[in-house]
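Give me the fold.
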Amino acid sequence: MAINLPFSKLSQWQQVAFNAALLERMLPNYQMFAEHAEFGDFKVLRNQLDLIWQWLDKANRCKINYDAQIAKLEEQVPDPDDFDFLGVFPALDSAMALMSLFQGMQDLESDSLSNISKLSENSVSYYVELSLAQQIDEITPDEEEIVISAQQIVEHPLMQWEIATQNELFDFLTTASENKASCLQAKAMVLEEGLSNLGIDINT
């Protein structure tokens, strides 16, 4: 794994804010999958992430019925065996990341809250590996076995961007005030490029 941040140094609020910001970069992958596969309701995930941002606003904190939200989310989780295109995997990562966030908030478990970082990185790693393999196949179609190294994945611009984004966000939140203004700033940081963590245009 290229990313290994010391999440134990963050408060629960900081960890939730970090993960909510990462999910802003992951949800567009689910939206694209849902539209193409005609599966799932993207609005459910979008509304749930908005609910988490509202929870982070201590001045107007809302209560969350975690069991109800998790049950609602479970209906939106795709089974990769039911779909024959690769977009299902980033969509699954997005749904499971949101699930982990709810579970971590409910049980105050740092392990659940650290899963989102890994899921986001995994989405990028998987996508980059496929992209590199496709490029090699186009250049040398007679190659029997295509091997992509971990170093090639880490050095890819998308993975470098993922690493930089997570580090920048982590550094910001370690000293950020636990308020709505910090939430808005964190969200703006990750949405500045207008792209998901896989480089998908958020506005399409």
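The mean pLDDT is 93.
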